[in-house]
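Thanks for the sequence, V.! I ran beta-aspartyl-peptidase right away. Repeating your input here for the record:
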Amino acid sequence: MALGSIPTFLLFISTFFFMVLGDDAVGNSVKYPLVVSTWPFKEAVKAAWKAVDGGLSAVDAVVEGCSTCEELRCDGTVGPGGSPDENGETTIDALVMNGVTMEVGAVAAMRYVKDGIRAARLVMQHTEHTLLVGEKASVFAISMGLPGPSNLSSSESIEKWTKWKENHCQPNFWKNVVPAGSCGPYHPKGKVDVSEECTKTNLMGVAELRSSHISPHNHDTISMTVIDKMGHVAVGTSTNGATYKIPGRVGDGPIAGSSAYADNDVGACGATGDGDIMMRFLPCYQVVESMRLGMEPRAAAKDAIYRIARKFPNFVGAVFAVNKNGEHGGACHGWTFQYSVRSPEMDDVEVFTVFP
Ligand SMILES: *[C@@H]1O[C@H](CO)[C@@H](O)[C@H](O)[C@H]1NC(C)=O
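Predicted structure:
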């Protein structure tokens, strides 16, 4: 073979392999696996990366990642020991979704069990249901082998709650109730009650003053996407919800399409923020459907956030979007958002910052 024809020969060979293996196979080895998570929860991303790079499925890697955040009590808003409700109790919301089968497992307002994402996976893998709630979710999780019942309070969460009680249970999530500006029990404001009627104007004044002084609460959630070596997509979330929530409150965390969504044909999305508002818009479902119609991840993320901001200009929240090409982007409103990524071309987890 003449020396000059070697490059032509190599070109021919590589073209041949490209044609045989196809675009996906060649691309996949570079694009996948991939882990994306809300916030700089680096240890969680590392744990998911280790799992998926070692050959675990996307679902199992998501569980490893979110579970790490539960153990580390990331930001105090994931796992036990954070976000006390009005009774001082910590409860857990979590979800896992398999983008191949569209199966979902979730638990909400789960008491006495620390392992939210593992409980969610048990719901997905061992029941025909999607969502179990409250103490019944705890009984299920424990019966399926998770540790419990355990005390989910920590000295920090009890201290936080005690200070809140001393501050007349402010801030809280009530509206149009009396008494305003102090602890309950609360009653609807419209209710005719002589003693309440007399002080109504004053109490309403207090209520208005209060709401104008509330800053964004802690609403951080870990919402994670993993694409495994097979190119399979899964998402998971875990949170202990909003601090000082009314007992029984469930946020966006365990709601598929809101805090997270995955479809193997398209990609995935993760969300964090004011779940009470965000769950009315199913932003992650919106993101995935927009990408299905051809939008780039960042544009899809911005569109989903805009749809919420248009109706709730003061809402605080963020989403990230990932498509099957491994492209990602984020959008946020009311705060600066960060999300973490680990891909084959990175030496370590990289944190991306998104400004409102
Ligand atoms: C749970 O733990 C908290 C914080 O350590 C503690 O204050 C509380 O008394 C415990 N509750 C029970 C029922 O043991």
